[in-house]
Amino acid sequence: xxxxxxxxxxxxxxxxxxxxxxxxxxxxxxxxxxxxxxxxxxxxxxxxxxxxxxxxxxxxxxxxxxxxxxxxxxxxxxxxxxxxxxxxxxxxxxxxxxxxxxxxxxxxxxxxxxxxxxxxxxxxxxxxxxxxxxxxxxxxxxxxxxxxxxxxxxxxxxxxxxxxxxxxxxxxxxxxxxxxxxxxxxxxxxxxxxxxxxxxxxxxxxxxxxxxxxxxxxxxxxxxxxxxxxxxxxxxxxxxxxxxxxxxxxxxxxxxxxxxxxxxxxxxxxxxxxxxxxxxxxxxxxxxxxxxxxxxxxxxxxxxxxxxxxxxxxxxxxxxxxxxxxxxxxxxxxxxxxxxxxxxxxxxxxxxxxxxxxxxxxxxxxxxxxxxxxxxxxxxxxxxxxxxxxxxxxxxxxxxxxxxxxxxxxxxxxxxxxxxxxxxxxxxxxxxxxxxxxxxxxxxxxxxxxxxxxxxxxxxxxxxxxxxxxxxxxxxxxxxxxxxxxxxxxxxxxxxxxxxxxxxxxxx
Length: 508
What we know:
Keywords: Glycoprotein, Membrane, Transmembrane, Transmembrane helix. By secondary structure, the protein is mainly alpha-helical.
């Protein structure tokens, strides 16, 4: 642990400081995500107390409407993030976020409350662009820890909402969340756009400037830019059928299938049920601690374990963390189920649930979200990350919406056993099938999913033997460094080309 903390400190020193600041600016949107996810847990107890006639079905809609718009937001964000850029999309999220919270704060009827919850749900869906941005601006060594900051900030937002909801009215909580929504667009104003996105749009000078700002080193910026552009294949002259074929490649379909199955096990392990129904969940399982106090404890545990998970992700392999996390949270939930069956001490049951929350934060919760920004090729990373998040949010909605009915038919004790079994099955799946991404560049990650071990485009999988011929383009960056760029060929400085030509002439 001490080694991990020292490693995180090194990230914040010298040239890495700007990269860290940019990553934190993008990840700040996840605090608002935490607000959205945790709000129903404090809203429902207060609202049902104020309106005793509200039905159980209406209560479940208040909770689930904050999730049902997540898939729409994820799809919309996935299309926009490749069109307008990562930075601008993260700034534009303020619109649904601010409007939704204001509608909730001033709602006088049940319908307006549901509308506000639906609008704020777009924030959660579109926020996955932060993981793409962080994956593209960070170095392989620092990508894990900086990506893991996102789930940690989600937990921070949840804890703040739980804490505020225990002391003040839910309308005031919504007003505070509305004011906080202005933070991310303000911070993103001071950081650059993703260099990889700029380069993919042919804006090489701007890409170099962004990389130089992030790395604070001229040679490093040039080297990284050339590494990306040397195998880049533009799609300007591609037909619609060819563009559609990009989504049928093995290096797109395989990671998509792997992540969706991972998300299924994640949702069925009970992580989000405890999150969205924290107060009601503790009331149903029967603990000796006040429900609001228990939810605040859960929020605090999530924040602490989120920080621990961010440290561990830089020291252990992704597969190891996911497997261990799934196994431990499954055992913890099984302990809670057995304790409930035997009518054991309520404190032991609470301790088991807290352990379940703790173990989920060191791998099972954050890894599929982080990997959705790592596993896809650059040319369709935004769209596929959005599609993956869309499917994940559909699963979350289904889980949240059906939990009351599930609890009714198999009882709260039965749901505990179900969550435990799914977590253990998920751990087995991660051990057998989850790909490894720790310490690898995005190009190296994508190569794992190629059909053959031939020389292929590491970003989009195109065969270099069928490359498109193009004239070299001479570009001069702000530092005065001349770079020769080709669409699908290795970058070669002009002085090297001249030397090679002279040697060939001598041999002839």
